[in-house]
Automatic annotation (TrEMBL):
Keywords: DNA-binding, Transcription, Transcription regulation. The keyword Transcription regulation applies. InterPro entries: Carb_Metab_HTH_regulators, DeoR-like_C, DeoR_HTH, HTH_ArsR_DNA-bd_dom, NagB/RpiA_transferase-like, Tscrpt_reg_HTH_DeoR_CS, WH-like_DNA-bd_sf, WH_DNA-bd_sf. It comes from the Bacteria. Residues 1-83 form the HTH arsR-type domain. Pfam families: DeoRC, HTH_DeoR. Residues 3-58 form the HTH deoR-type domain. The lineage of its organism: Bacteria, Bacillati, Bacillota, Clostridia, Peptostreptococcales. SUPFAM superfamilies: NagB/RpiA/CoA transferase-like, Winged helix' DNA-binding domain. This is Transcriptional regulator, DeoR family.
Amino acid sequence: MLQAERRNYIIEVLNRDGRVVIEDLAKVLNVSEMTIRRDLQVLQQHKLITRTHGGAVSHDLLAEETPYSKKAEQNMEEKRKIGMYASSLVEEGNVIILDAGTTSMEIAKGIVGIKNLKVVTNDLMIAAFLSKYEGIGVYCSGGIVQRDTVACLGDHAIELFKSINADIAFVGASSVDIEKGVTTPTAEKAQLKKQLTKSAKKTILVADSLKFGKVAFVNICPLTRFDLIITGNRIDKEIEQGIRNLDIELELV
């Protein structure tokens, strides 16, 4: 395979999966890992990708908010597994918080059928979905609707979550890093998520493996703020060990 063909292939995989791993690319393309590293370096210089430890992610993933329609296409099999496991932690009679996002939607699908639930969310699509089912009381935060993500933000939403005493808060993330913790592209979203981490007895981070090893614009909180992190088993092994070294419970699905 020619150099240009190899780099085009890398871009195709990134567009499809959102992430590439150097070791995997070297095996598939039958070249050395050093060759793949050089390819990734060139692609990053052209601002086509963003290098991460052991691989790369799409350049646009870190720069700004990703539209809901694009999120709904990324790593969905893993998000379904996360949602299935997370929903198994919910018990009859619980009050839970569901952060906005496609992973939280998978949790919402998993709790259908559990009786006497109260669900508080800032996600309009989750609120509409759960409102169809008896036995689930749905509370939507209101606030300013972010067009790209269909999430409610702002002071009104924050005030509602300040008044909530939930059993579990499921908090999503676009970027997770061992040192920087959870970060997000906008200050408005950071303010809301900070409050979500304070509104429940147990706070759980739910994020697929593509979100790890990334840092976005605004800090939310350190990883030690979470009682449990649920992610996919494709997470980088060094990142996995880094989380375990922080003495945080980690569930890989």
